[in-house]
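Quick one: structure tokens for this chain, please?
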Amino acid sequence: MAAETEVTGRAVNREQRIAGLTADGWRKAIMALILAAAVALPFGLGSFQTFQITLVLIYAIAILGLNILTGFNGQFSLGHSAFFAIGAYTSAILIDRYEMTSYLTIPIAGGFGFVAGFLFGFPALRLSGLYLALATFALSVATPQLLKYNHFEDFTGGVQGINLLKDEPPFGLPVSIDQWWYFVTLAVALVCFWMARNLVHSRTGRAIMAIRDNPIAAATMGVNTALYKTLTFGSSAFVTAIAGSLSAIVVEFVAPDSFTFLLSVYFLIGMVVGGVGWIPGAVIGGAFVLYVPNLAEGISTGLAGVLFGVIILLVIYVMPSGASGLIRLAVTQVQRRFDQDNNKA
């Protein structure tokens, strides 16, 4: 009984040790500050910088989709550039050929991505590890070639691609077109991250992670592994296709060579740098894959690939668990320091 009281008291102290706020309170306060900064950010930046930040959010959404599949379900994919392309071309075709408003194409593109991911998940059920990676690699390699195929040119534009125009801000809002689409992308990103968090913390999310940790034990406990794997593939493709849709609208152009296997590699790098299985890490990964290659090219155009590789190696050496591991280590050190101060007091 005394031991139980001691543990309970320690838990209470841990909850109240930092300026009277619980850990959950600090988390909410930090999220509120980040959200406020994100809303104010485009008003202090130029047009091109706002465009870049919008691309960071788009990449973050795509990396989030990959993280749902790989980080939480353990299915390794090198083919998410294909789902990104499906979302981009769905929006581009609907806008260019059928004159549909850009906003409506975003959920439709996500729906097409979900169907494609769900259907691809069925034959992938028998595959895992390197074999699944090889299958998804084949998907990413084949997609640009299919988009260039002569019989599809009427829809895809072939090698030339499709040019688009972004919708202007509605209701005469006093913001530029780049700022408006930044806010649209930010809103979509918040919804996607909120959905991903709810998924992970739900009963379905626990089943998905159980399959990742031990599929045999999960099946023994009554988890329908085939259904959850295909649904996870579909959900992952849904989120990534939404990112592709936003990319097509914001960049105002799609072409087959924009969705090569290298894009899948960038998504994978972003997931690893941000932290596998850590939802907020997708934003850090998105910033990494956008800015670091540009930084390397700015240092030396001829050695940009080499410098990018060296930077990746250094990041992996410094943060073997990604940004999530580094942040958790820092939080642990802060908590330990406050615990020591409280014990002294």
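The radius of gyration is 22 Å.
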